[in-house]
Backbone:
């Protein structure tokens, strides 16, 4: 059984006719597995994780067929029961460490708070545990840092503190939302190494949200590519890097120097559709070099031998590899008759 | 921290001299001859007039007059009241506790209710309750408090008979002034019923004086809370699985109070200005009523240096708020 | 079929609402602000057509009708819809004429503090080393005194009256304009568009009034609305203290000064002038809040 199992998750803000920020997403993570989620800003990666943590407030609405963590249905858990999981078994590290820590309290206080809330540790026991955690995240002179205020720490140091806070109650699944984006390049590798070491040592599940495809290639077993709130491609990392099936994934890979075919880096023209310019059909169609008239209808996520893809004209797939009759879970599954023409 | 305080204190000195310049100029702006005005007569005997000019140093050049004025101030000489012939400083110190007591009561009323209302409104954003709190606070902010005082007297004192109309305490009681705070003095005197009586006298003026600060604090708390609750660290706190109360009060309000504290400091000016009106309505024997009476009686020594003292008070309070702000906000405290 | 042949996607047409329309729509959504605007229009009409609207001369004393209650009370009469005061003057007429005076004081004091305030603020912003610090210190000193107290002091020295009231209120609201203008100017001066016009050879005056000032207007408009309301409040307070407009001129605050004696006998003499002040000030503040929310794009999208 997977540690985390999400089926058809949607998040929308405001009125019912507003386009969903996350649209029918399926995800699963196993114990001890690293899953990467890739996509441009605004593709719904972070919102998905916020929904998982129960951090979406009205007017945001979260709906899902299934949102199960360690066998428990998160959607049916009420406030207090859910908070027993959040921050304990399910923890999160955020993007910008400089704003993620409360400026009014010391580092030690903010770590001990987790220990007190979830493990019932108080006083000296909590303090010793907090110190041990700071040492685990490789903070030098850890004892003296307990009494430091967040503004006295560098970005990398703050992120280490945030990681210490997240792993304080020994979570089974850690979500890292672009944990290195706000940091100096030199620090980024250190933080990634730290996260992966902790993941291996504790056999945690790790969801890694990132822009950095190089990081994905090195760390993750599976990847989910998101575009405008939808998963457009999912699958095993080596296979997808070898032969991307979605035009968007292909474009992403082409924009990475190591994967580029020509000397000039490829770019995808245009931007992610916003609220006012959401296209009728396939969301990528206005930017897609392979778009055809048929792309004016919405494709569903279709499983194939190496993963799943949301495209009528997938790349690098033999004609028989994809099953056009696969039942789309999506609201608007494509009309079945159209596909055989291609 | 000491360096921080010293630096802020250094900034006060030019402001202080600026205010003396202002109060000095104020008196020189009186149309006509100050001596004539002070003596309250149109035709003064020329010899007497010259003697008065000489005695008051008014025949010297302006800059020398200013130096004399500041010199006297620095020696603690604030002049004496033309009416009572007692020193301005003595009158001020004897009346100030009454104003302070009133202002503190008003501030207590405004802060507790204002912070509470602001937090609730922020958490129930967009609800009927939020609109109600915001509507009421805008009404409070728009309130002509002298009229508000009259209405409260009319309803609670005249129609319902719950509270006394004016003064600090009933004439029945003879309370020796020990601290100057009537609530404390009545307790010390041990007279039965005196404390309750003083409290009843205090309630309406405190509400009237606290109305505008209450409105300002409620609005400020609400917007600061809305801002803070959107901060990343509040999200972090929620992601830790902490209880909503802990997220709101420990992580949210603690940071939201920093701007509220600043606003609170700015309200001291409003309180002192409001005290002028409140004390006039309730015949509260404080410095506001004292200043207005001095203006009515053309007691310019009191007007000039009374205003100077009030200004110094405001400057000092703002300084204290600055320092407290530094204490509450570690980011400022550690700036070097 | 050739898969590389791309489908010519139609150029997406994006409709962004125009700024004016967005402002109007955002303002109109704010029910309080619209209410405030309507009440203000009513007030302006009262002030403009006071001689035709008022049933009586505001100064005329009906000696047979001292302290007549409003018409809906038992002893009231339809001749004096809101009753009469202690000298038998018609309350409604006095309130209507009072609107004239309050609006005049508010408007005049805003104009007389806004214009010098903006000028001083611009100078302070453009001259951060010489004139700037001097002006700002001066404003700090003025801010050290509570505004009403400073106004009281000025009027006490100059003597009561309409002109001196306006003058005193204009002076005390000066610092907020200067500080606001200077702060906005300092922010705008660092923007690239200012550097661009400077490089294009724009003179200081052009920079001040054509480039920078229009971009500082939003907070100034809001501040002008708010100080309009506080001008009305301060003027009424001065009147109440006997330092404002001289009786028998029908000014709302002055009307309250004598009302204290009738707290026990004639509630309408006490309640009505203050209610007029409260409602006008509230209306202007609602208007100001609506303007601020509609003009400030940061707050606009936060909802």
Residues:
């Amino acid at each position: 059984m997977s540690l985390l199992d999400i089926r058809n998750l949607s998040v929308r803000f405001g009125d019912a006719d507003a386009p969903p920020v996350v649209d029918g997403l399926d995800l699963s993570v196993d114990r001890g597995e690293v899953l990467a989620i890739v996509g441009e800003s605004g593709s719904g990666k972070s919102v998905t994780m916020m929904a998982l943590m129960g951090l979406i407030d009205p007017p945001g609405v979260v709906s899902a067929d299934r949102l199960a963590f360690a066998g428990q249905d998160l959607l049916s858990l009420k406030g207090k029961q859910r908070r027993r999981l959040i921050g304990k078994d399910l923890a999160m590290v955020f993007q910008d460490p400089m704003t993620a820590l409360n400026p009014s309290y010391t580092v030690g206080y903010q770590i001990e708070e987790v220990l007190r809330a979830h493990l019932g540790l108080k006083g000296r026991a909590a303090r010793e545990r907090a110190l041990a955690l700071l040492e685990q995240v490789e903070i030098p002179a850890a004892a003296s840092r307990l009494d430091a205020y967040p503004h006295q720490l560098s970005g990398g140091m703050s992120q280490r503190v945030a990681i210490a806070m997240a792993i304080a109650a020994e979570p089974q699944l850690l979500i890292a939302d672009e944990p290195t984006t706000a940091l100096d390049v030199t620090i980024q590798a250190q933080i990634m190494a730290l996260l992966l070491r902790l993941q291996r040592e504790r056999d945690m599940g790790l969801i890694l949200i990132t822009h950095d495809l190089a990081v994905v290639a090195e760390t993750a077993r599976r990847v989910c590519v998101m575009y405008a709130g939808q998963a457009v491609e999912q699958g095993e990392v080596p296979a997808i890097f070898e032969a991307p099936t979605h035009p968007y994934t292909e474009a992403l890979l082409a924009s990475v120097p190591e994967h580029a075919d020509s000397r000039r880096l490829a770019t995808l023209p245009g931007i992610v559709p916003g609220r006012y310019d959401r296209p009728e059909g396939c969301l990528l169609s206005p930017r897609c070099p392979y778009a055809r008239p048929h792309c004016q209808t919405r494709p569903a996520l279709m499983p194939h031998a190496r993963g799943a893809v949301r495209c009528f004209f997938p790349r690098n797939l033999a004609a028989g590899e994809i099953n056009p009759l696969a039942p789309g879970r999506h609201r608007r599954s494509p009309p079945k008759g159209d596909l055989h023409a291609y | 921290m000491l360096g921080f305080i010293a630096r802020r204190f250094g900034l006060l000195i030019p402001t202080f001299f600026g205010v003396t310049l202002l109060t000095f100029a104020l008196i020189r702006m009186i149309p006509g001859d100050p001596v004539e005005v002070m003596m309250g007569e149109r035709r003064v005997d020329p010899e007497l007039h010259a003697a008065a000019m000489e005695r008051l140093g008014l025949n010297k050049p302006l800059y020398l007059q200013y130096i004399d004025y500041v010199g006297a101030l620095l020696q603690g000489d604030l002049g004496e009241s033309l009416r009572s012939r007692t020193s301005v400083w003595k009158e001020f110190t004897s009346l100030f506790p009454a104003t302070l007591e009133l202002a503190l009561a008003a501030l207590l009323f405004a802060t507790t209710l204002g912070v509470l209302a602001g937090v609730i409104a922020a958490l129930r954003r967009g609800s009927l309750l939020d609109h109600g709190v915001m509507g009421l606070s805008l009404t409070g902010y728009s309130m002509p408090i002298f009229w508000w005082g009259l209405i409260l007297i009319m309803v609670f004192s005249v129609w319902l008979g719950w509270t006394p109309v004016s003064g600090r305490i009933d004439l029945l009681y003879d309370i020796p002034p020990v601290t100057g705070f009537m609530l404390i003095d009545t307790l010390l005197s041990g007279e039965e019923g005196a404390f309750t009586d003083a409290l009843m006298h205090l309630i309406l003026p405190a509400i009237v004086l606290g109305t505008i600060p209450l409105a300002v604090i409620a609005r400020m708390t609400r917007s600061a809370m809305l801002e803070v609750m959107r901060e990343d660290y509040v999200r972090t706190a929620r992601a830790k699985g902490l209880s909503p109360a802990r997220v709101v009060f420990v992580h949210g309000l603690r940071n939201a109070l920093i701007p509220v504290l600043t606003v609170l400091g700015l309200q001291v000016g409003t309180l002192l200005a409001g005290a002028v009106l409140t004390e006039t309505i309730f015949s509260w024997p404080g410095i506001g009523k004292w200043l207005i009476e001095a203006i009515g009686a053309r007691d310019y020594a009191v007007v000039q240096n009374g205003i100077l003292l009030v200004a110094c008070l405001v400057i000092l309070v703002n300084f204290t708020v600055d320092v407290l702000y530094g204490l509450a906000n570690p980011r400022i405290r550690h700036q070097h | 079929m050739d898969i590389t042949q791309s489908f010519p996607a139609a150029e997406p047409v994006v409709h962004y609402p125009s700024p004016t329309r967005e402002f109007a729509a955002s303002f109109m959504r704010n029910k309080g602000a619209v209410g405030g605007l309507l009440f203000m229009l009513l007030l302006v009409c009262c002030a403009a057509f006071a001689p035709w609207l008022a049933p009586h001369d505001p100064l005329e004393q009906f000696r047979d009708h001292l302290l007549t209650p409003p018409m809906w009370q038992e002893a009231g009469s339809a001749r004096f819809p809101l009753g009469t005061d202690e000298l038998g003057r018609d309350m409604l007429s006095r309130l209507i004429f009072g609107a004239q005076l309050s609006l005049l004081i508010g408007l005049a004091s805003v104009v007389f503090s806004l214009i010098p305030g903006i000028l001083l603020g611009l100078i302070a912003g453009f001259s951060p080393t010489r004139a700037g610090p001097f002006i700002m210190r001066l404003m700090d000193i003025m801010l050290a005194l509570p505004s009403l107290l400073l106004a009281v002091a000025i009027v006490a020295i100059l003597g009561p009256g309409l002109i001196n009231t306006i003058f005193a209120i204009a002076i005390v609201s000066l610092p907020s304009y200067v500080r606001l203008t200077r702060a906005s100017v300092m922010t705008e001066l660092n923007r690239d568009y200012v550097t661009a016009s400077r490089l294009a050879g724009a003179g200081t005056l052009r920079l001040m009034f054509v480039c920078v000032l229009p971009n500082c207007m939003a907070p100034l408009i809001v501040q002008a609305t708010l100080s309009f309301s506080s001008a009305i409040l301060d003027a009424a307070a001065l009147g109440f203290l006997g330092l404002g407009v001289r009786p028998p001129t029908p000014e709302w605050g002055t009307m309250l000064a004598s009302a204290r004696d009738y707290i026990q006998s004639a509630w309408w003499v006490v309640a009505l002038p203050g209610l007029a002040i409260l409602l006008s000030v509230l209306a202007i503040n609602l208007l100001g809040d609506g303007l601020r929310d509609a003009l400030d794009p940061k707050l606009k999208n936060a909802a």
